[in-house]
Amino acid sequence: MSTVKDLVEYIVKSLADEPDEVSLSEIEGGTSIVLELRVAPGDMGRMIGREGRTINAMRSLARVLGAKQGKKVTLEIV
């Protein structure tokens, strides 16, 4: 398992009202990682945050950790 995925999953489950509904899939390429996040409909607004601040903060953390591994990380909410 990737440490980037573990970090994002931990943060999302901590924020979610329904942590059992959280699903995070990882698609790894040669130099990139795409993380696809699925949450319960009621948690969608909480994950995005006001003006996208929460999701952008998670994306920044994921990018920094990915850069340390030499990978470009993209986090998407599906």
* Total tally of structural domains: 1
Helix content: 40-55%
| Overall pLDDT metric | 92
What is the CATH superfamily label?
Answer: K homology (KH) domain
Q: What is the H/E order?
A: HEEHHE
Total helical segments: 3
- Content-based structural category: alpha+beta
User: What is the general shape?
Assistant: globular
Q: Give the distance, in angstroms, between the N- and C-terminal Cα atoms.
A: 21 Å
Radius of gyration: 12 Å
- This entry's quaternary arrangement is single chain
Can you summarize the main beta sheet?
3 strands, mixed
Q: Which strand order does the major sheet show?
A: 1-2-3
Would you identify the CATH architecture? Answer: 2-Layer Sandwich
Strand-residue proportion: 15-25%
Number of strands: 3
CATH class: Alpha Beta
